[in-house]
Amino acid sequence: MRLALRLxxxxxxxxxxxxxxxxxxxxxxxxxxxxxQFGQVWTGLxxxxxxxxxxxxxxxxxxxxLGRLFDTILTYPAFAVVGVPGIVLALMGxxxxxxxxxxxxxx
Length: 107
Description:
The chain is built from four helices and no strands. By secondary structure, the protein is mainly α. It folds into two domains: 1-34 and 78-94; 37-76, no CATH class. α2 packs antiparallel against α3.
């Protein structure tokens, strides 16, 4: 299970770095700071799936709250939306430490 978490987290972090490099090159070309919104990237990749997720969230119990939350997430930078869960998953897949502190006799 830890291996799957680490692999998925690593892939998401790698995708976030790629998105950050793309944003960096666009920023250099435009001579200003530009970040691609997650909604723009998703629409560019596969727009019908975005509409499917919107309709799915609209049929849930807290449809208004979920819709507003989802619309807010779509406005965040794409590298952050992908990178933060990647970091969390990679940290969850770490091997737990056995000893965190040293005894005075071990120093």
